[in-house]
Structure formats: structure tokens, C-alpha cells
Design goal:
Length: 716
């Protein structure tokens, strides 16, 4: 049995299902099924053509494990391709057609400053520069009434100029108040496609059905900018898989925790900006439910970024906006806004490839710049010379240079020392070891600080929660971060190093739609309310029924953004039963006040209630991933790693201690490991501090108990 292969308790369905997650540094694979086995693999991403790593990794796994591609019934794919395209500005030549007088909305933004004291702040340039924007005559009121009809001839002329004079390869259409009535945008698309049938056209009302034209125009522009590239990538991947004998279904992970068909993902690439991280959060929620712990912090740290997400009551939290391509140290407001459903998470530039350097104050700064997969950290031996977090972890003894990725990739510790000495230790006049510990602690503190702010903004108390840690670098830093946040318990699931890939297999098909329509609750009749929701339900069902699901297999959820009259912000209210809208409509005022009281401790205002946004989510059947991983007996017999000690540096101070080296695959349920220890598996290493201990639970998870906490404390 290949090293790193483990087994899961499964249903009787033995079909093979493959999850593939492309990260900034590594591409992760999880092959589930076939008599209950979970085979895993990790290899470097190929930035120039990510599909190369995908296809090579699939071929490697199939040959290693004795399967054929035709044995796989389903491949679920998560990727950072859309995000990277936006950050690196590698997309289509894009144009924008908009309402007369509004072509400068993309430059005017929200007229807010993300740092009021810095006079030199910069914002990312729009992906559609001013010369590639055209205005046309049309005007829609906020209530959807037409005040100026669309002049189709102007649309045709604008499209011809943009295509023939500027070489536009994709077009966004953003009209004022199109969320209230998309008729003009739809007519514009018909006119443009009549002239250029193969030109991709994105309507702002399709990608974001809400108010605020800047966010809507930006979302439409980014969708158009990435659409041709992402559609080509998916076609190329589907063609290559079919040529190799794959006859199953391919799905793409969305940012909101569900999966999409390739056709939907190709049309709406902005829906997959955070696809890989969302899968990891979904898997954390899965583990929380299995372990009976509903209050969780999902901590994912890979080679490029660290992500944190809160889970309440066993369910992930969602938002409907995010920001990409931030210009200044990941500061909110310095990037491009997207309005799309996404798992609520905080993301910072902290990962194994994060570059360490000296800032203007002559102190250590780590990230957000990353060495990526090419050339990677200095210790990778691929030509990298900058000091990174991975180099520091090698110098500190946390990573075994001879056993990285199970020995498939040998690290160069001398190159790591040289890089740290040149870029950090010598400028500070300190030892290489102290500089390495500083790099490690800086990242842990940066992550903890970001998570602390994220939790405080949402009223979440870490002291009563459990951390689920995963990713290639997550287990190395998890206990240090947890201690800073005063989290008493950390869970390291089986296959923690590739958990996002596994999370892809736990995510159902899903689709969401929303619309802005402001109205007073007292002015609504039940029939009007039901008709409004039913229209959204039909739109949300369409992509799933097109994928072969029946209406009886679909689970709808209806959410409303509501507020008291005169307030500037809304709260989200979930309808109890989307199949009983008439009944629940009568309870809507009570539901709002109950939710308001949960958030603000009182709800005694007598002002009228206002509905602003209507949101519908449709979810298909949950994949048959059963709770409880356990290492298979064959894996245990093969996992006879040589026990021993390795000198390892721990903080605070520079305490070099002999840390016990443990092969994770040799551990059985009920066993415990007392720190200092290094629990190694193929894809990652759990660093256990001198004051900590780890027990193996009945499912094979490693549960770390921090000093003052208890791994067997009452469940949340």
C-alpha cells in the first residue's frame, strides 16, 4: 500500500471519487472509494499551466494504486486560477457598455480611503481601462420603471468599436438599476451576440442581482475578464480527461461551499474565486459535526496563504461580498470588490513560501509576498534564494529534509540557512537560529492577530471553541496560534495536509441567486411574497435540474436581509421552511425580532420593518462521505517509521530540546504523544510543544490538549 494511503468508513457505494485542489504552491489530490480507501497525493503546482500538475498527479495516483481513469465516476475540482488571473492581470481584453454618464464609476469607486492618514495610498486599476468603456442611451428607475428606452443602435456601434478598434475579447454590460429590471441588459446581449456570436458577454444583473452600481459593475467586469481564460481551461481539462478515458462527471467547487457544473462555472468564474479554501471549511464543519463540536475555527495554512473561518452550530458562515487583489498589505478597502456568495473567512498572506525580509523599521516582516511553487523556498533547490517560512521551519528542526512529502522531495537545509543568514540574521546581527525562530513566531502572531480581529467582529469566543487545523503548513503552526488565541483544543484530521481536496468530495451541488427589492413588510401580501420567492427558487433550481437532479432531491433555503426603517444596515433572517412560505410569512416580523435580539440583546423598536435583499440557495444531495476515518491495518503494518529524537527549537527564547519523532501512521486510537514531539505524515508535520500532549481519538484524529485545556472536556 502506498505511503500515506488511509482508509475511511464508507457506505456500500464503492465508486471512485477524486478531489483535486490547485493551490498557489502545491496541488492536492484525494481519491475516495474502492472498498473504502482514501488515497492521497501532493505535488508542486505548475503555474504556467495548472492542468499539467492536475493530469500528471492523476496519472501518478492511478498507476500507483492500480486504477484506471474509467474507474472514477466523479472528479471535483478546486482551483485558484481565477484569483491568480485577477491578481496577475492575466485575463481577456475586456470592454464595458454602460448607461450614459456612468462610465467613470469604476474609477470613482466608493470614494473611501482604506488608510485616512496615508496620503500615498493606491488602489488597483480597473480591469477595464477608460478607453475600453462605452456609454449608451437607456435609463431605468430604482423600481424597474423605464424612463429612457434602450437605443439598440448605440449598443451595436459600441460593440463594433470595442471589438474592431480595441480588440476586445469579452464584454461586460452594466446598466443603472438593472437589478430591478434586467430587460435592457438582456436586450443589449441579444444585439451584441447577433453581431458577434462567439463574443462572451457578461450581464451585471446575472452575476449580482443587488444594488450599488460600483460593486455590480466591478463584479461583471471581473467575470468578463476571467471568463474566456477559465472556459478554455475547463474545456482543455475536460478534453484531456476524456482522451485518457474519463467518462464520469466533472464538477467545480464554488466559493460558497457547494459545487457547480463546468458549464455554470465557465459562465460565472467569479463564483469560484475561493473554491479551494471553501472546501477546507466545509470539511472542518464535517469534522465538527462528527465529533459533536459545533463551535469551531477552521485553520488552513498552505504554501501561500493562511485562511481562518468560523463555524457555528456545525454550519459554515456565509457572506455575499469579498475583496481580491488588495494593493496594500491585505488591507480591507485596497482591493477590488466582488459581490458573490462566499464562505465567510479571513485570508492573509502567510504560508510556507512567505518571504522574510527587513521592513523600514529594521524589523522582520514575513509575507504577504510568496516564493510560490517556482522557484519556491531556498530549501527546495529550484533556484530560490530568498528566506521563507519553510526555510525557517527546516532550520528549527520542525521539518525533516530527508522526509519531506514522504521522501519524494528532499530539502536543502544549508540553502535554507544561507538564505536566512543573508536576508535576516546578518542585517539584525543575530544568529541564524534566532532569526528562524523570529520568522516562525512572526507568522504565528500575524495569523493569530488576523483571526482575533475576525472573531471579535462576529462576537465569537475562541476560548469555548475547537480548532481544526490542516494544510501543508497548518499543523506546524496550529498549536502556537491556538495558544495565542487561548483555544483549548486542536484537532488534526487524517490527511490534514490535503484536507481541502477531501472537502471537495463532501460538498454537494448548489447554486444561489439574490435580488435587491426594497419594500415595507406591512405593504406585502402573502401572495406577493410567495411569488417573489418562487421566481428566485426557479432561477436557482435551473442549473441543478440541468445537471440531472430532480426537484425532489433539492433542498431550498430562503434568506432575507431586513432592517428597521431608518437604519443603514440589515441583518439576515432565514425562513424556517422554504416549502411553507405562506405560513412562515405570517411569522416574519417575529423571526426578525428574535434574530435582532440574538445579535443586539434587545429588539424593542417599533419602527416599520423593511426587506432589502431576497436570497435563495438550492442544495443537492450531500455526497456519501461517512464520519470517522481510521487508518487501515495494511497501512499500519507498513508504517514502521524509525522512532527517534531530533533537536528542535521552541520558543519563547531559544530552547533546543530533543523532540520525539513519531510516524503518524503507526499511531492507534487511544495512544497519546507527550511533547516535545514531531508527528510526521507524508503531507505535513504536527509540531507538539513541550507543554502539550496529543491523543488519538476513535476516528484516528489527533486531538491536542493545550496546557490549561482538556482534550476530553465537555463538548460544545
Amino acid at each position: 500500500m502506498p505511503s500515506g494511503e488511509v482508509s475511511l468508513s464508507t457506505s456500500s457505494d464503492d465508486r471512485l471519487r477524486l478531489g483535486v485542489d490547485i493551490g498557489g504552491t502545491f496541488t492536492d489530490f484525494a481519491l475516495f472509494g474502492g472498498a473504502g480507501t482514501l488515497a492521497i497525493h501532493k505535488q508542486l503546482t505548475t503555474p504556467d499551466d495548472p492542468s499539467e500538475a492536475v493530469l500528471d498527479g492523476i496519472a501518478f495516483m492511478l498507476e500507483r494504486d492500480g486504477h484506471a481513469l474509467r474507474d472514477i465516476s466523479e472528479i471535483v475540482h478546486g482551483t485558484t486560477l481565477v484569483t491568480n488571473s485577477i491578481i496577475e492581470r492575466r485575463g481577456a481584453v475586456t470592454g464595458l457598455v454602460t448607461t450614459r454618464g456612468f462610465k467613470d464609476v469604476l474609477d470613482m469607486r466608493e470614494e473611501k480611503r482604506y488608510d485616512v492618514f496615508d496620503l500615498r495610498i493606491t488602489f488597483p486599476s480597473p480591469v477595464v481601462p477608460r478607453p475600453r468603456r462605452r456609454e449608451v442611451t437607456e435609463r431605468m428607475r430604482y423600481d424597474g420603471q423605464v424612463t429612457e428606452p434602450l437605443v439598440v443602435a448605440e449598443v451595436e456601434r459600441a460593440a463594433q468599436e470595442l471589438v474592431e478598434q480595441h480588440g476586445v475579447e469579452a464584454l461586460a454590460v452594466g446598466f443603472l438599476h438593472a437589478y430591478a429590471n434586467p430587460a435592457h441588459e438582456q436586450a443589449a446581449r441579444v444585439a451584441i451576440n447577433a453581431l458577434y456570436p462567439d463574443l462572451p458577454v457578461t450581464l451585471s444583473s446575472d452575476v449580482f442581482g443587488g444594488r450599488r452600481e460600483y460593486e455590480r459593475f466591478t463584479t461583471a467586469s471581473l467575470n468578463a475578464f476571467t471568463q474566456p481564460m477559465f472556459a478554455r481551461y475547463l474545456r482543455r481539462l475536460e478534453t484531456a480527461l476524456a482522451a485518457l478515458g474519463f467518462g464520469g462527471r466533472l464538477y467545480v467547487m464554488s466559493s460558497s461551499g457547494g459545487t457547480l457544473t463546468p458549464s455554470v462555472a465557465a459562465a460565472l468564474p467569479v463564483r469560484v474565486v475561493e473554491s479551494g479554501p471553501a472546501a477546507g471549511v466545509q470539511m472542518s464543519a464535517f469534522h465538527g459535526r462528527a465529533l459533536g463540536r459545533g463551535e469551531l475555527l477552521s485553520f488552513d495554512m498552505g504554501g501561500t496563504t493562511a485562511k481562518g473561518a468560523l463555524i457555528r452550530g456545525g454550519e459554515t458562515l456565509k457572506v455575499y461580498e469579498l475583496e481580491v487583489a488588495r494593493e496594500h498589505d491585505f488591507k480591507a478597502g485596497s482591493g477590488l470588490p466582488l459581490r458573490t456568495p462566499v464562505v465567510d473567512m479571513i485570508e492573509i498572506g502567510a504560508g510556507g513560501g512567505s518571504v522574510a525580509s527587513m521592513d523600514a523599521r529594521e524589523t522582520v516582516q514575513v509575507g504577504p509576498r510568496s516564493a510560490g511553487a517556482q522557484p519556491g523556498p531556498a530549501c527546495y533547490g529550484q533556484g530560490g534564494v530568498l528566506a521563507t517560512l519553510t526555510d525557517a521551519n527546516v532550520v528549527l528542526g520542525y521539518l525533516d529534509p530527508d522526509n519531506f512529502l514522504g521522501g519524494a522531495m528532499r530539502l536543502d537545509p544549508e540553502a535554507a540557512r544561507t538564505a536566512i543568514e543573508e536576508h535576516v540574521a546578518r542585517p539584525l546581527g543575530i544568529s541564524v537560529e534566532r532569526a528562524a525562530l523570529g520568522i516562525h513566531e512572526t507568522i504565528s502572531e500575524d495569523v493569530a492577530r488576523a483571526f482575533r480581529i475576525h472573531a471579535s467582529e462576529r462576537g465569537f469566543d475562541y476560548r469555548r471553541s475547537t480548532m481544526v487545523a490542516f494544510g501543508g503548513s497548518g499543523p506546524v503552526h496550529a498549536l502556537s496560534v491556538a495558544r495565542k488565541l487561548r483555544i483549548p483544543r486542536v484537532v488534526f484530521p487524517v490527511a490534514a495536509g490535503v484536507m481541502s481536496a477531501l472537502g471537495l468530495l463532501a460538498s454537494p451541488l448548489a447554486f444561489e441567486v439574490s435580488r435587491s427589492r426594497e419594500c415595507y413588510l406591512d405593504d406585502l401580501e402573502a401572495e406577493q411574497f410567495v411569488a417573489e420567492v418562487e421566481e428566485l427558487l426557479q432561477r436557482a433550481r435551473a442549473p441543478l435540474t440541468a445537471a440531472g437532479l430532480t426537484v425532489s432531491e433539492l433542498a431550498p433555503v430562503v434568506r432575507l436581509d431586513m432592517r428597521y426603517q431608518g437604519q443603514g444596515h440589515e441583518i439576515e433572517v432565514t425562513m424556517p421552511d422554504a416549502d411553507a412560505l405562506h405560513r412562515d410569512f405570517a411569522q416574519l416580523a417575529r423571526l426578525f425580532r428574535e434574530r435582532y435580539a440574538e445579535l443586539y440583546a434587545f429588539a424593542t423598536l417599533t419602527a416599520p420593518l423593511v426587506i432589502t435583499n431576497w436570497k435563495v440557495e438550492i442544495t443537492g444531495p450531500t455526497p456519501g462521505l461517512q464520519a470517522g476515518y481510521q487508518l487501515r491495518q495494511e497501512a499500519l503494518l507498513e508504517a514502521d517509521g524509525v522512532p527517534g529524537n531530533r533537536p528542535t527549537c521552541f520558543g519563547p527564547g531559544e530552547r533546543w530540546l530533543p523532540a520525539q519523532v513519531v510516524n503518524r501512521y503507526s499511531l492507534l486510537p487511544g495512544e497519546q504523544v507527550v511533547g516535545p514531539a514531531l508527528i510526521e505524515e507524508r503531507e505535513s508535520t504536527v509540531v507538539v510543544g513541550p507543554e502539550d500532549r496529543v491523543v488519538v481519538d476513535e476516528f484516528g484524529n489527533l486531538v491536542a490538549e493545550l496546557e490549561g485545556g482538556s482534550a476530553t472536556a465537555d463538548q460544545d
